[in-house]
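Collaboration report, partner site 2.

Our partner group contributed sequences for two proteins of shared interest, and the home lab folded both. The records are reproduced in the order in which they were received, starting with the first partner submission.
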Amino acid sequence: MEIPVGIENIIYLDNAATVYPKPLEIMDNMIDMYKKYGVNPGRSGFDLCLIGGDLIQSTRDVLTRFFGGSDPDRLGFAYNASDALNILIYGMVGPGDHVVSTVLEHNSVIRPLNHLKRDGIISLDYVPCSADGYVDPDELASYFRKETKLVVVNHASNVTGAIQPVAEIGKRCKDRGIYFVIDAAQTAGIVPIDVQHMGVDALAFTGHKSLLGPTGIGGFYVSEQVTIRQTRAGGTGVKSAYPYHLEDYPFRLEVGTNNVLGIIGLYLACGYIAEKGMSNIYNHEMALFAPLQAALSNIDGVTLHGTTQLEHRLPVLNFTVHGQDPADTGTLLDVDYNIATRTGLHCAPLIHDHMGTSPRGTVRMSVGPINKQSDIDAAIEAVREIAAIARK
């Protein structure tokens, strides 16, 4: 594959979509380990196969500790957070149930819930957020009914960056005996998560964002108090004569051969994060983000959307340039300045409706662990020049 001219010098500010580039320590070691252990784990009894199975179990162990869980067998793998959320949502509700979610959600939550509502299976409410993107736990609890079965909340928005008070929401759910699921796609790897302390019954994560792994791998953690109804069936590598899919975890919610390469990547990425320190990675990103937000807020013709506070948030910034379509702003940043951003509705249409930025959306810049100060300086100068041209 021929690499396009200039791509090696790209200023990448689309880390909320996927962190890029991944640390070489993870990528290089991932390939080396896959060369050694990339067999079909759990399907045969030879030594290499057993080692592959042990590696997968070790990754369950590591991630369970990472999320504050108690039973590694309740840690399952999926394609990504969207896949994991579908497994959880369809497996936790049934006819007549009521579900509460928020306007901050990604389509990974919105679409499964809307399908269930459209098909007459559930009733559904989306709770609004404040102007700066935070949900009031008491207001959310005011939507509870006697038939409320499930609450699904985005731990942190890929649009506003606001980190929700999930422990407070979890307490209100526990008090009413309601299942609580969080979408940790944006927070896993960058924000400490303790499902037991937060009162979280199930969590969905993806590997390719702040967990610093490859694409195509994600998963979920399910507490021991929750039973997820099986919605898929297939091979597990054990008890092959049994005519139905196994009900024991972790087999219960996994089907077919695991993504061994992706799981190796998660295993190595967790080690990398532990070595670097999650708080150190977060502080690095926010130290770059703060001046970016401050500078853009002072450019004539630029409007910031969402929270501007620097606490309880991720380094995600959305803006528009007065008189210019966000898609055009993004194209100028790409073509003229070699800066990669994300434009549009970011697969989260309800929050854009709430902010008044529909139907065209915004330009999103999101800082990652590999960014440096020169990236931020270039982005500020580029937006300043684009806004000046738009004012003419």
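Second partner submission, folded after the first:
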Amino acid sequence: MNPFPTSRRQFLTTSATAMSAAALTRAIEVRAHAANDGTIDIALVGCGGRGTGAAANALGTQGPVRLVAMADVFPHRLEGSRDALNKQFPERVQVPPDRQFLGFDAYRKAIDSLPRGGVVLLTTPAGFRPIHFEYAVEKGVNVFMEKSFAVDAPGIRRVLRAGELARQKNLKIATGLMWRHDRPRQEVIQRIHDGAIGELLLLRTYRMHGAVGFTPRQPGESELAHQIRNYNSFNWLNASFFVDWLIHNIDVCCWAKNALPVLAQGHGARVARTEADQMLDDYVVEYTFADGARLFAQGRHINQTWDAFTDCAHGSKGSAVLMESLAAPKPRLYRGHVQTPEHETWRWKGEPWDPYQAEHDEFFAAIRNDQPYNETERSAKACLVALMGRMAAESGQPITYEQALASEVQLAPQLEKVQSLDDAPPIRCDAAGRYAIPAPPQKNAV
């Protein structure tokens, strides 16, 4: 069985088949519906695979909804996304040429196309997320934002502040940590919280698979365009393999523990990768919770090595598989720590569940019913825990949660000033075309 499920990048290919003054201000500030007939208008900012998948999920929710604006820095991505979505949702995609925006200010134009109470899907690489999120909240629109949510601690703090302002404005904020909306995981974690395996002492999570792809710089392509097109390979864009690709697992483990770790230590290395980028291909991080419990997180992307994408929990009375594989979570509980069939005490036997769609269904239902809905704080803190692990791996030093949150290191401090793909990127290669690798002992990791 393929251990990896259909991704959002593949989604369309495989699935197309007195009022007091305060109260008055709130009523004016936010409208649950974007039109009198209940239609919710959507803008998509970031038209890659994740964005196109998120838009498909949003357009697949119940009730009248329409995509009215799109934004990207690459014309071919916008066009490809538009055409794919239009093919699947011909009545719901209403994006004329004058609402197809290109460039680094395109996000503003797309958001400005929405009425207050509309929805913007923020799905660009994570380096841009704090900038775009702040603007969306300022303009009074509801937000779905993909993980990751920032690439450094200053970005996380910006997201947290914007999330609090969104709460005050009664805006609805959903995030891309979709496993929180997965019924099988909800069931197993509730059983753990109810004491099914006793006191939780140890969690283990793994994301181990083949090498992440990389496309060499094309003739005539600017350095900035090259890096954005290979956003997975540059930390200022994607926060690192460890953060962007293990954030789901780390979030689920913190959910199971019902706590955030207070300390991280670990190491990272570039073992086999030869591409001209700055990506480490092997991470091991040990997290410690306040009560002394541990979370061990391993991330590796090296060809011809053991593949694993799984989360496990161990308690004083037993153990659990939170996820067997991304394709099929199959959560289950065991007496003791030998996880073989004869020791199994429970397993999920319900129908398959689509957490990608479920998160959008719940988000749009909250908008239509004007119910409180704001996932910002939980999700930003999960991202900070992942960043804390990266900081520990890159510095070779133990990093506390407080140190991580207070860090002033910025990976792209001048990003808001970028206006063109011809502008200078935050990092540059050397004369040989190689980039500095953020490996220990990196002194400015925190």
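Feedback sent to the partner group on the second submission included the following. The CA atoms of residues 144 and 174 lie 5 Å apart. Residues 8-179+359-374 form a domain with the Rossmann fold fold (CATH 3.40.50.720).
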